[in-house]
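Please produce the structure of this protein holding beta-D-glucopyranose.
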Amino acid sequence: MSNAIKAVVFDLDGVITDTAEFHYQAWQRLADEEGIPFTRADNEFLRGVSRSESLQLLLQGRPVDDVTRQAMMDRKNAYFQGLLERLTPRDLLPGVADLFDLLDRANVRFGIASASRNARTAVEKLGIDGRLAVLVDGHSVARQKPAPDLFRHAAARLGVLPGECLVVEDAAAGIEAAIRAGMPCLALGPAERFAEIERRYGPVWRRDDLSGIELHDIEAAAQPASTWWVTQEGWQAEHQHHMETIFTTGNGYFCSRGSLEEGYPGDHALTLAHGIFDDIPIAITELANLPNWLDLMITVDGQLFRLDQGTCLHFSRGLDLRHGLLRRQVRWQAPDGTVLDVTFERFASYTREHIGAMRVMLTAVNRACHVTVETGIDGHVSNEDLLHWHHLAQGQHGESGLWLLSQTRHSELDLATAAMVSTPGQSPVQYRQCPGQPRLIVAQELDVAQTLQVDKLVCYTASRDPVEQAANVVERALAELAGRDYDTLRAEQVGAWESLWDDCDIEIEGDDEAQLAVRFNLFQLIIAAPQHDDRVSMGAKTLSGLGYRGHVFWDTEIFILPFFTFTLPHLARNMLMYRYHTLEGARRKAAGNGFNGAQYAWESAATGDEVTPAWVPDHNGKELVRIWTGDIEIHISADVAYAIMQYWQVTGDDGFMRDYGAEIILDTARFWADRAEREEVDGRHRYSFRDVIGPDEYHDHVDNNIYTNRMAQWHLQTALELLTWLDGLYPAHARALRDKLELDDACLQHWRDVIDHIVIHHDPATGLLLQFEGFFDLKRIDPAVIAQTERSMQVVLGIEGANASQVIKQADVIMLLCLLRDQYDARTWQTNWDTYMPITDHRYGSSLGPSFHAWAACEIDRADDGYEHFMLAARADLHDVRGNADDGIHGASAGGLWQAVVFGFAGLRLTDDGITVQPRLPSHWRHLSFRIRYRGGLVRVDIAQGGAVQITG
Ligand code: BGC
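Below is the modeled complex.
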């Protein structure tokens, strides 16, 4: 979205000259003559407002008939014109003449856009008419400010894109018009005047007047803040899938990939909502692509607007992370030569989570043309080639609304999609009833520089939504849209996102790339975190792609949740509650494997039953490969417990622990104790976990993986302590759980025995933790080969080859060190770092590794090494490091990034005395600050390079 400023449009009154003062004097005289109380302060509300609306405000509800009203307006205008006659070139406001000279020298065209019908007279009196490239006034467009039309009109007349044209305005309504037009702007006047605008739209560039303005100030205004905007310049079809992932927007209920509204051949458009799973072959169940709310077709004199047709003269796109808005600006030439500026903006409303909103503005640039906009709901969607929907009914609602009722083919979930289209003050809307794709059509003749604005609001409601009464989904969707409008929703969106960031932002000074990447990754997590539903959780690819089919892994608890637990704990709670609601599935899995208690599925979906596919095609898509993780990657049960304990420790939410968390931790502890295999060795007994997969999935069917064993031991220990806590504080709850889970003395004694005798290969002499038995008997691979690989080492060596080699997919021992960091001494840290890091497939093994490696590096005081790993994680999606960003956001990497900053570089710990930090900033970071929520209170941590620390809150 970065544009060079090619033109400037000035408002007249109060910007170029103080006719605002004349307006005030004219109104004051009229008011005095009529005996209406009116002051200079009252006049503030009339700024930038049309004459008739100004009179309305001045009259303050006094009844006046139309003839008198007109006569009053004429009188005011006559007084005003009389005052105008006195204007001379000396009345140019400070800085105007210099700025005009500056713009002339820089070849930047400029003009005036004023709502005033006297603009031409004023310009002539001021002696500047010969210098203006364009003068547009209240006669030029039908809709006045704050509608965007006048400024878009001026930009088109100047021959520049809206984004290339700076608007200079002194009125709040004018600034609003510029923002809505998609144009950069400069607000002149006191800050209070623009406070409401800033509340609705975010910060604006403001000055008291134009004196001393430099060209670089103007250029900067057109550049979106580089640490808040992810941008794309120019359209490259070959990158479209990567960009779709990057530009995903959402609100915790649904997310939509950043595909183009009008579509593009081969695109992977996708909207996914939590919990809307349907059956598929092989992967068992997947999130179904929802009917497409972006559905849009534009024609220009019968020619289809799409980027593979005609000529794309300009394309820029930007994701405004700070406000949750996706914007795009296109200048497109139709095959017949007609040029159109098309601006898109869309968002998934964070405050109304069922609603998506989009605004399209079409401006004819070089000739008049006939445009049509057809938009509705496209039910003809699939997941790749697989169809998930039956469409049961569809219909029209009122003048400009429509709806589609659909049902998933196997899981029989109902989904209503409703849409409402409006074209403020303009063309009527027609309805077209295509089966499975109801649409509304707007058609209009556009004069040169005229704009057609189409606003569309869409609402999804599902039969599985947590609602009080099971009302008809269609009625719910339509009711949700009733009375809503784009601008109000947008203002809510801006406010909601500003306050989200107040709670969770990380600020990094001295590294804009890292700053932007951190915000981008956090943004992608927030949009996929369920706000109001605690029966769903975040999949490994968030809601941004079909990778892993929406299934939930340990990625959520170990990588993603800490960010939420420490900043937005209500969202963490929802996702932990998902584990409570799916406990029955975990019990079924344990029972199915012949064990007591609850064993969480490696991949989990709606019910908590195991949904890991047993077979998947290999990387060539030629052969089927057996996937063992669903059978034997068992550490996830301890990972869930770990996340619960962390949530409890940070929030102090005893109610959650008592009512839900304890049951999860205790029942999964039963599983561990039962799964542990008792063995007799040299007349002594011990416990093993044989035939498992640890976090390093290059090796399957291993024995006594240290991560698994040690986390199971920690889990059992934690469960015993928890039971003691429950006995003490909530004895009735403790009794009930003891009965329900059969936690008798023999059972607890067995837990203690497992804790004491579980195999933990930790060499006391060196501190080496053995990843699994026999690991160092495997074939040694030259670390240089691993460091230089351009493909995954599993592809290089083959599945069996990797299995037989000392090469690691992702942090395993290092993971364990991080999670239980204070239980290991410095030598253990160092030895294991030295041993395992050189043989890890850092780039192509797993995206889960780098962020924890960054954290681990900090623990051994190698923050600059840590930074290298950190940036690998930071760029994972933005730079498509592994070439698979099309599948969706790497959620674990995104969550790990937060931990690398907070636990790694800042060294944050929770101790019995509260929060402590032990900073180890990368050497080029000047300052790091972040917020966390600890036991309900907001805490701000500030760390300067060199170690000065401030903790406030
Ligand atoms: C990783 C797992 C991870 C899964 C989903 C696999 O490649 O090895 O640790 O849970 O991807 O992200």
